[in-house]
Amino acid sequence: MITRFLKQLTSSDKQPSSLGSMLLVLSIVQILITGGTVAFVAFRNSESATNQLKNQLRGELAKQVENELTRYFAIPHKINTLNAAAYRRGEIDVLGASTGEAQLYEQLKLFSTISFAFCGTEQGGEFFGVLRDSSQSEESFQVSFSSPATDMLRHYYQVDEQGNRGDFIRIRESLTFNSKDRLWYQAAEAAQGSAWTDVYFGFTSDLPNITASTPIYDEQGKLEAVCATDVILPQEFRLFLRNLDAGGNLDFSDRGRAFVIDRNGKLIADSTDGSLTIVEDEKQRSRFGIESDDPLIQQTSQTLLDTFKNLDQIQDPKPLTVLWENKRYLVEVLPFQDEAGLDWLIVVVVPEDGFMRNIIANINRNTQQTVWLCIF
Question: Class for domain 49-71+235-361, per CATH?
Fold first, then answer.
């Protein structure tokens, strides 16, 4: 069509006017070609930018969880260091259970994430600590100890608001308690330094928790005692996971998921209200991700197992895609480790359509503006 129009112009008797028209048409053709080229390049660049933004934003979500876990799990080891020093000075009396509850009580009051602070000895497996009791409507604190003098049965006393020992509460007569038999003691002894236990169910609370422990050695380098701190990931942490900041690109609390698993695939925490434990053969145990009450967490956990076979293979951030209910979900898997031996995986799941809707709209708008600028 343009060729025919150009022939008409060149065959016209009005050469000056025809020449001007021809130049005008050539200019229009050049603009259209340039605009089309720019639009094509902009489209290809938008695809690349979209992929970069997808990786960047889901990586940032996983990083938020990593930073919170780092802050959260640094506290117990700092407490253990303080208590080990107090033990050496005789301010925490584990053997005689005569003093020490005031310091431990202040620590639990200061750090709401700590449920139990205690020490145990090598000599006879004695135990002494202060725990947080949240079983009643009003939170309270108790000092608990056991030794050969108590026939290794745990005795419990109330702790008042000044950190002083108060009324006798009870003796747990059903089970003896020797510190040296406990996982937290053995973990510190084996590591010969700060260590973490695996997730287990607490002796007092029967809730899933994890314990940080630190060994204490005498002047001859022999193990003398272990100080430890129990941590239970509270509801506040699950709320944090539920409300991750997606930078306005997604209402994460509505459609996103975040969860933390160990290298065996067991759930440590997640962003749902579902139970993290399950009863099997009349015993409580931690759920695996593939046993989650949430179908999307189930599917994501299964995809991880299908993709990597062994979760120990994941040593750096891994982006994945999960298909669930005919929709694509973007997944970021980030290893979380610390110097004391924590080795977990942070998993963030976001729907591709909701996650990218605003980004794609902005890119399309910018592309259109670029083309119009080329024309005008």
Answer: alpha beta
